[in-house]
Structure formats: C-alpha cells, structure tokens
C-alpha cells in the first residue's frame, strides 16, 4: 500500500534538488527511542505520531517496535516478538533485499538520512492493514513537515506476531514502493500510476519466492478474490481488496507473455503507466500495444487455452486452469427476432457477456455494437462451436459502433462470449471512474447473406455451381488456375465461398501480378504465360490502369508461369 502526501508539497519536492536535504548520518543503537509520524487512517488508535524503540539492527534495516504495543506484552511474549523480528530481518537481508534490488534497482541509498539502512516501523495498525509506505518520509521536514526523514516502511506488528510468514509478504510488497519512489519520483520527477506501482509490488512477492507454495500463497488469496468478482477496473484505485486481485492477474499475464522485464524496464524508464508499457513494446518491435494486450487478456481469462494461441492463456502452472465466467448470460433462440443487451464498463474494466445460441444451420448471427462515439470501446469475442472448437476475433469499433457476422454452418454455434472494456482514458486515473454503456444487439440472418457480408481481402470466391475460383483483393478478383493452390499453404479450393452474381460482379477482374520482392508487373494470360508490362509509370497511368489491381504473389507462382512476350503499351 502506497500513500501520497499533499499534492502541493509533492509538487515542490519534485523540483527540489535532493542533495540539499541530506542530513548528517547518525547510526542508531539498539535501545534508542524515536518519535515517528504515522498515518491515522491505518493506525489502530488513529494516532498521528508514536514513540518506538530500536530492537534490532540488520545489515539493511533498523527494526523499531511501537512502545505502546511493547508495554502490553509479558516477558515471554516480548521474547517471542524479538525472535520473530530476527526471522523477519534474516528474510529481508538474505532474500528480499538482494533479489528486489537486483531486479528493480536500488532504493534511495543513503537517502535523505544519509544512512544505508532503511527503517522498518512495527506499528499497531487496524485489523485490515498489513503495512504502508509514504513518500513524504523520503524528503526533509523543509519539504514535508510530517516527514520522518528516513527511507522507511511501516508494518503491522500484530501480523508479525501472529504469522511471520505473512508479514514477509508485506515487507516484500512495501519495499518495492520504496524502490519505485527512488526511480520515478526522485530520479525522474515522475508520479507512477497507482495500479502499475501496486502491480509491481504484488509481483515482488512472486519475485522473492514467497508465492512458490501456491496453496498458502498471497497469489492464491488474490486470485480467489479476483475470481469471486473479476469485473473490476484495473486502473481505478479505491484501494480495496478487489484492486489487488485484478493487478495480480494482469501482472502474471504480462510476465507470461513478455517476461518479467516488462515490469523492471518500465520502472526504470522515463514514462509511467500505460505509456511506459507501450514504450516497452515499441522497443521490442512488438506490433501490439496496451489495448491489444488488454483485449487478449480478457479473452485469456475466459478461454485460457494456449493451443488456440499463446496470448489466449496463462503459462503460470497454477493459473492454467482458471476460467472466468460471464458477467451476464443470455439465451438467443431461433424464434427471437432480435436481442438487445449490453454492458456498462469503466476504463479498463473487463466484462464478459455470454450468449447461448440455438439456431438452424441456414441461420447465422449478426452482432451490432453501439456506444458513445467519444469513447474507445475495446471488444473481442470468442465463438464456441458445438464440436468444442473456439475461434477468437477482434471487433474494431468506429465512433463507438461496429458490426460482425458469425457463420453458423456445419460446426454450429453453441455460444458466443463478448469481452469488452472502455479504453478511452490512458492517464490521470483516480479512485472513482464513471462507467459507460455499450449496447449489444444480436440478430439471425440468412447464411448466404453472412457469407457475402464477411468477405475479406485474400478470400476465395466462386459463382454457384461453377468450378472457377477467384481470389479477391480490394475491388478486384483474380482467377486462379488449379495448379496455383498447391503453391500457397493457406489456399484451399474447398474454402471458396459461393456468392451471388451481384456480389461476384461487384469485383472487377484483374490479371496483373508482381512478385513481392520485384517491381516488375506482369499480366497473366489464360494459357499460363506471363507478360511483363515493359512500360513506364507514366504510361501505366496514361493507360487508365489501376495500381490497386496488382496482386502480389510468391516466388513459386512467379516461376509457375511461362514467360511470354513483353507488353509495351
């Protein structure tokens, strides 16, 4: 949990040279007492300050215990607490500190207090609080009057006594916040988005091996919370348990897909939030961007099957069998004319609408989407067929609207799951976001109509009851002699769609081709010969030929044709 102090103070701190506020180092000794400012929101007694005593000094930390709590313990319980502190200190020195510093980078060191050790305050906190980090402590009192002038985190002392294994999770989490404060706030003058900062802190628990025993891990607790209510915004941050569930699931997915460096490199980069992830993707020459990842993640949560595509499932062994059910479920039968439903989603809030379909083979499904034109609704859908095979597709909405057609042939549609979110906002997230509505309308259409409506570049078409097959591109169609199909692994004559004469004739016939790595354009004749158009670009334009009529071919097809005489006009 990371807390921010007043914005006006933070703004001043950003522009203040850090070196001006380094105080003279004073090594503390066991038994020293010190007064600390604390956060009343998380303190058990709503205190704003408390006195604490240094109980142990490790290689990397000072461990202070709340005097008020210590005084309530018997000698035996005090001894038990001391042993728990030794256990926690060893874990921090030997495991958490070296692993996190190696992966994320260093905390402020020696920092505002000019001391290489951090301060860990063991405080009596509310029952639901495990620990917190406040950036104010990293500045001098001139910058923030409530600063403790130390690189420090606070942990719930009662959790330490009850379960030392559990408190190790919190120290791993909070220590990342201290590191992030150094790399974003101090070194670059940036304020990391809450959701991404918390995501990295949650991943630190896995990084340090504290999630290795999954059945009793923090990750499992977070996953269980997420599965109970998975439709929670990733970026809205009211600091509830649901927020930690969704960042865990998204963070594990990012690491599965791109490796842990997507988290470490974005931490040490010059940007924050979504922009930092897009910059990382760009640096790796990845075609996708954040919204594409989010769309695939929504599908992965519902489908979770990497055999369909690596991006549609988890690699983490404990997450491979997780499947998120629909937010809403509806039934759409043949006797219905139309069905209108929809979802209401906040920015980067995943939502799933399932439609169970019952339709005869000659009926297919049309889905129309309608939303506010100034929003950026991101929509994917999974078609589950009766034979068990799924197909994943993406819908690109324009001005909030879009339409897709889903063929219902021999495979027969069983159900369709629409995964949707709103991705309009990419910066400036806070604790409250407004949901926006996306309407979803389902209709049954004739199968022949859908075949014609779903034609795309590169598809094969033919007239009804005729053998000649054409490939389409743009507004043109090109006849393919039978020998051509074997030269392309993806072309199968059986996939050719029969279209009506109006659709077939709407494509102009072209016989122009060019090899992908050659500028020469050829005309292919029915006798299997190719003829180079030995003319200039100016002559081409003057002849009213269309550059869009040229089909790109592979080397095998180029060699398939016999070279004939040149065309010179």
TrEMBL record:
Keywords tagged on the record: Signal
Signal peptide: 1-27
Name the UniProt record assigns to this protein: Peptidase M6-like domain-containing protein
Lineage: Bacteria, Candidatus Yanofskyibacteriota
